[in-house]
Inverse folding.
């Protein structure tokens, strides 16, 4: 295998383009991010004071129930928020540049090239009138990478890597000729085409068959180990996160509740919400123990108050939990938690 | 034989003038109260089988019987389908109660005076609070919408539910709730299910038997225990090897 760090455009056995990355560091630092959304005419916070880092070549999973603010956080980082959502506060540094203050030209230079982005709903982000292969080449073209032959070759190879059979022919298909899972894979190839230093992937494998999912996870893991690709992956599935990530950022009601090494998260998480997520993972060895649902429903961020947002569903809750203002504190080396209680038994016996 | 019996069913689609075989002599049974999972990669024919059972696609060969009788193509059926996208099968203008009442009326299942009570009963059955009756589905969470879709399916009093990726778009927390709901419906109503899904961890929790489709053919039908502990077909082994499991090291 070639040294990918020497030439970051060589992704494993994928074709090398003649243009190297400028500064392929891919270090992301999110500080105090606040995203507001418009609801019946007023702006309300949906992402509240979110801070975390993704180091070079690190793989971080943003995990939490649906509605917890994961997608908004990811879109805010890449400045891809839709209408009706805005960054209200905070900073997002990518290799030292604050993206929240960057102008359109800087953002254009960064998107597709330094940041590869896979949307939660890839169908909506494809152009029905443009051939799949051409769409996957878009970032290469936009950033003037490679000639037509090199671009096509690279895209075909990436399509093959994500398991599209007969990729050279299928690249000429239009999106409607692809199944949902194939379109999702085409978008993954498109996001990786220009060898970004940071990949942001919003639930990239949920619609995929298990065999294809395993393949995509392998590819991302390999690119990150070999080429130093940094990854921010969003998922609600702790099993998928444990396969891919080094570290977890656990979100609930727009807040970060725990940032933790993945091995600690699956063994001895600090926050009761992380424990609850752990208990949702079905046991493949036996059908005897059904996964334990989290009681009640997720609280919308703008209704969660200033205390612990999880208090209404937490079995360890005491009055102080609601009264103490939210804050993250260190509970170990590189381990942060927003739970204020010192709980003797952090991991209930039910957790396998 | 009682329950659902699919016997040597083939389905062909015509695409660009050419005919493709989506199902090739598939035989499968689902007894009342039994949950059979149908797995296989996309395009293997899972939805086609469910739709054939529901009478939504024509079969080219074979028979589909419930309690020894052909399933009618129109009118009330002993099977009911639930899809991945609940909003796709719900009229956006109708409230939850109206969507359920519609089914009761079409099949003349209750006198007008009994509609309200039956609707309330169905909502309770799927674990929805009575308040949602007057709400339009788009204002509900994804999990609640899917409960409405299930309540609507149950309104026609089917004996077998055809769950086509019904849990696939839900997050892990809502899936765990729905898993319990399906188990509960089975024990309360004695209802059976053909469960289609790509989450094999969920199949492990839910299914009595597992049927594996590959390119329109059944390559394995085993008890869940057998399938997960000693899968027979290489394709089954491939599927199982790819399941993401919680990695502790
Ligand atoms: N454009 C928007 N306008 C109004 N509300 C929104 C918008 N986008 C997201 N929201 C709301 O913000 C919350 C967080 O959404 P999201 O980031 O998509 O959560 P997740 O990705 O964790 O499921 C949800 O309650 C969602 O309904
Ligand atoms: N309406 C249709 N017209 C033509 N081909 C179809 C149609 N529906 C499905 N197919 C084809 O039939 C095969 C089986 O599809 P399907 O039953 O949807 O599989 P699955 O649900 O396992 O993904 C696929 O090759 C698919 O492309
Ligand atoms: S702060 Fe209190 S309510 Fe919140 S997670 Fe900890 S124990 Fe539970
Ligand atoms: Mg999301
Ligand atoms: Mg299908």
């Amino acid at each position: 295998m070639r040294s990918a760090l020497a030439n970051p455009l060589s992704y494993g056995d994928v074709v090398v383009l003649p243009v190297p990355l400028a500064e392929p560091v891919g270090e992301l630092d999110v500080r105090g991010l606040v995203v507001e959304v418009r609801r019946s005419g007023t702006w309300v916070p949906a992402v509240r004071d979110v801070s975390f880092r993704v180091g070079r070549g690190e793989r971080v999973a943003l995990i939490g129930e649906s509605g917890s603010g994961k997608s908004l956080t990811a879109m805010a980082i890449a400045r891809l928020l839709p209408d009706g959502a805005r960054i209200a506060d905070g900073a997002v540094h990518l290799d030292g540049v604050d993206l929240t203050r960057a102008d359109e030209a800087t953002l254009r230079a960064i998107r597709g090239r330094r940041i590869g982005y896979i949307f939660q709903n890839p169908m909506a982000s494809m152009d029905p009138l443009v051939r799949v292969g051409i769409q996957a080449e878009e970032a290469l073209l936009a950033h003037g990478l490679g000639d037509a032959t090199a671009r096509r070759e690279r895209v075909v190879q990436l399509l093959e890597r994500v398991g599209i059979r007969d990729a050279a022919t299928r690249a000429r298909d239009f999106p409607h000729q692809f199944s949902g899972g194939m379109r999702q894979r085409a978008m993954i190839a498109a996001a990786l085409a220009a060898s970004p230093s940071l990949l942001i992937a919003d639930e990239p494998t949920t619609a995929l068959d298990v065999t294809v999912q395993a393949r995509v996870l392998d590819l991302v893991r390999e690119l990150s180990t070999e080429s130093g690709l940094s990854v921010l992956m969003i998922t609600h599935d702790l099993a998928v996160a444990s396969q891919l990530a080094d570290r977890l950022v656990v979100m609930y009601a727009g807040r970060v509740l725990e940032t933790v090494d993945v091995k600690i998260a699956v063994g001895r998480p600090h926050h009761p919400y992380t424990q609850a997520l752990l208990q949702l993972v079905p046991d493949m060895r036996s059908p005897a123990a059904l996964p334990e649902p989290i009681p009640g429903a997720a609280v919308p961020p703008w209704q969660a108050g200033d205390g612990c947002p999880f208090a209404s569903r937490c079995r360890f809750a005491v009055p102080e939990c609601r009264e103490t203002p939210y804050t993250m504190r260190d509970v170990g080396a590189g381990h942060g938690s927003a739970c204020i209680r010192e709980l003797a038994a952090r991991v209930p016996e039910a957790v396998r | 034989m009682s329950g659902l019996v699919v016997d040597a069913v083939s389905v062909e689609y015509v695409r660009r003038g050419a005919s493709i075989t989506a199902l090739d002599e598939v035989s499968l049974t689902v007894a009342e109260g039994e949950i059979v999972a149908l797995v296989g990669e996309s395009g293997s024919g899972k939805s086609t089988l469910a739709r054939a059972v529901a009478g939504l696609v024509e079969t080219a060969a074979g028979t589909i019987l419930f309690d020894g009788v052909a399933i009618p193509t129109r009118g009330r059926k002993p099977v009911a389908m639930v899809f991945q996208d609940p909003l796709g099968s719900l009229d956006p203008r109708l409230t939850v109660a109206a969507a359920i009442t519609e089914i009761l009326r079409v099949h003349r299942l209750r006198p007008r005076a009994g509609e309200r009570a039956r609707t309330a009963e169905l909502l309770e059955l799927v674990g929805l609070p009575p308040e949602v009756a007057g709400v339009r589905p788009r204002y509900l969470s994804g999990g609640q919408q899917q409960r409405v879709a299930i309540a609507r399916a149950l309104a026609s009093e089917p004996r077998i539910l055809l769950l086509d990726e019904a849990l696939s778009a839900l997050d892990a927390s809502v899936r765990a709730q729905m898993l319990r709901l399906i188990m509960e419906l089975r024990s309360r109503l004695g209802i059976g299910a053909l469960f289609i899904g790509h989450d094999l961890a969920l199949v492990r929790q839910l299914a009595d038997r597992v049927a594996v489709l590959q390119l329109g053919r059944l390559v394995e039908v085993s008890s869940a225990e057998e399938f997960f502990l000693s899968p027979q077909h290489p394709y089954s082994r491939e599927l199982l090897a790819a399941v993401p499991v919680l990695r502790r090291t």
